[in-house]
Amino acid sequence: MREQKKKGTRYPFWFGGASSMWAAVFTHPLDLNKVRLQTAKKPGNGPKPGMMDTFKMIFRNEGFLGLYSGLTASLLRQASYSTTRFGIYEELKSIVKKPNKELPLPTLIALSSTSGFIGSIAGNPADIINVRMQQDGALPPEKRRNYKNAIDGLIKMVRQEGLTSLFRGVGPNSGRGALMTASQLASYDEFKMLLLRSGMFDDNLTTHFIASTMAGGVATLICSPVDVIKTKIMSSQDPAGIVHLLQETTRREGMAWAFKGLLPSFIRLGPHTVLTFIFLEQHKKIWRAIYSSDDEVKL
Ligand SMILES: *[C@@H]1O[C@H](CO)[C@@H](O)[C@H](O)[C@H]1NC(C)=O
C-alpha cells in the first residue's frame, strides 16, 4: 500500500519524451518548413520565399508525405533529447523539493537548464540527422545523402565520418538546449503555479493550455534572439568578435534585430510546447487515475 502511494506520486521518467514525440508528429511539417526556409536560395533577385511558398513547394515536388520526410529523425531526437531533459528535470525536482512547498523560480531555472544541457548532449546525434534528412529533399539528387531513416543515418554517419562526428556542434547546441529548457519547463511550472494560486483556475485543460502557451511565448522571446545571433556569427566576416558585431548591428538596425523572425519562431515553438505539455498532463492524469483507484481498492 505504501509502495503504491509512492509510485503514484512519481511518474515514469519517459513521460516527457513520449509527450514530445506525440507533439513532434503534429508539428514536424512546421519544423521541416523552417529548415527549408533557412537553406532556401533567393531565386535570382526576387524576394526570399515565405512560409506558404515553402509549403507549396514541398507539396508540389514531394507530395503530402514530403511534409513528413525525416519524421523518424524528429522522433529519435525527441526520444533522446526530451526523454533525457524531462526525466532529469523531474528527478532533480523531486530530490530538491520539500513536502507542501513550491520550488522558487530560480531553483526551477537552475534545474531545468542543467537538464536541457545534458539532454542536448544526448540528443546531438539525432539532431544532426534530423537537419540533414529535412534538407535532403531540397538538394540536387547527386548531393542527397538518402538516409532511409534515422537509424540508417546514424550508421552511415559513423561509417563515413567517424564516431566523433555525432557530437559535432555539441557545445553551442547544449547551450541552446539549456536556454530552451529553462524557458519552457521552468516557466510552465511557474505559470501553472501562479494560475492555480490565483484561485480562478483548476488543474485542468484550460489551465494547461494557457500556461503552456505562455511558456511557448517565453521560450520564443528568449531563444529567437539567440538564434539570430547564432546565424549572424556563423555568417559574419567580422574578426572583432560578438560584442562588436552586436554593437554594429544595433547601430545599423536598432534593437529590431532581436525581434526579427519572432512570429515565425512562435508559430513553430508555440504549438510544439502546448502539445507537449497537454500530452504530458494527460499521461500524468491517466497514471494518477490508475494508481488512485488501486489505492481505493486496497483501502
Ligand atoms: C477548467 O476550470 C475552469 C475554472 O474552474 C473552468 O472555467 C473551465 O471551464 C474548466 N475547463 C475545462 C476544459 O474543464
TrEMBL record:
Repressor among the record's keywords? no
Record keywords: Transmembrane helix included? yes
Q: How does it sit in the membrane?
A: Multi-pass membrane protein
What PROSITE patterns would the database entry show? SOLCAR
A single GO CC term for this protein reads: membrane
Localisation per UniProt entry: Membrane
Give the transmembrane region(s): 12-30
Which Pfam families does the record match to this protein?
Mito_carr
UniProt Solcar repeat ranges: 7-95, 103-194, 203-286
The record's comment on protein family reads: Belongs to the mitochondrial carrier (TC 2.A.29) family.
This chain's protein is named Mitochondrial dicarboxylate transporter
Organism source for this protein? Dactylellina haptotyla (strain CBS 200.50)
Task: Print the organism lineage.
Answer: Eukaryota, Fungi, Dikarya, Ascomycota, Pezizomycotina
